[in-house]
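Reminder to self: tokens first, then the designed residues, so the page reads top to bottom the way the pipeline ran.
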């Protein structure tokens, strides 16, 4: 009876799916501490996905998570896909596939993420000082002007910049600590560090 009463609140399945999806988008935005502007844009993206019939065959949660991630990408907000997946109640592959669908079908104006976008987040997470942040930003800006960032994970390049800057400032921090904060492997960090040093 409770289930039927809940169903009775919505005039159609589409209306019920929209309410559920927007609720999921709002929950994720709150969990990830995103701004109201990002939340509202993500809700609008979810509505667009539904109106284009992109929910068919996909979970509402996956489209909701992809809407959050896509909106962050369009706004150059340094949010990793892993952050969204951790907060969502759905597998990584389903969110990735849903994002690809949104990107392809709705032609999202998502510019490539840049290493400089990830530096402040890493500095904050690692509680490093202003001098390290400034130097890491300089390294990241230099890297963005080279082929180093082509095809490389921007968070990996940012991690290498932060690690090198911390080393040059004499901060005691390990590669694994920085790699973990950036959600990349230590091997990736070392590879990007070696490429930065060779510039």
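Designed residues (199 positions):
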């Amino acid at each position: 009876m409770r289930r039927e009463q809940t169903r009775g609140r919505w005039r159609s399945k589409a209306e019920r799916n929209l309410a559920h999806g927007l609720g999921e988008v709002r929950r994720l935005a709150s969990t990830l501490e995103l701004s109201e502007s990002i939340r509202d844009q993500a809700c609008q993206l979810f509505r667009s996905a539904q109106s284009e019939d992109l929910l068919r065959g996909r979970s509402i949660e996956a489209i909701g998570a992809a809407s959050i991630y896509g909106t962050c990408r369009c706004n150059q907000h340094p949010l990793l896909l892993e952050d969204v997946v951790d907060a969502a109640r759905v597998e990584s592959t389903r969110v990735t596939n849903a994002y690809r669908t949104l990107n392809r079908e709705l032609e999202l104006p998502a510019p490539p993420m840049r290493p400089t976008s990830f530096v402040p987040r890493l500095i904050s997470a690692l509680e490093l000082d202003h001098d390290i942040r400034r130097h890491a930003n300089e390294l990241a800006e230099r890297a963005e002007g080279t082929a180093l960032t082509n095809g490389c994970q921007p968070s990996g390049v940012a991690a290498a910049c932060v690690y090198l800057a911390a080393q040059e400032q004499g901060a005691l921090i390990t590669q694994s600590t920085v790699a973990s904060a950036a959600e990349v492997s230590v091997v990736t960090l070392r590879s990007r560090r070696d490429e930065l040093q060779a510039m």
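The two ends are 68 Å apart (CA to CA).
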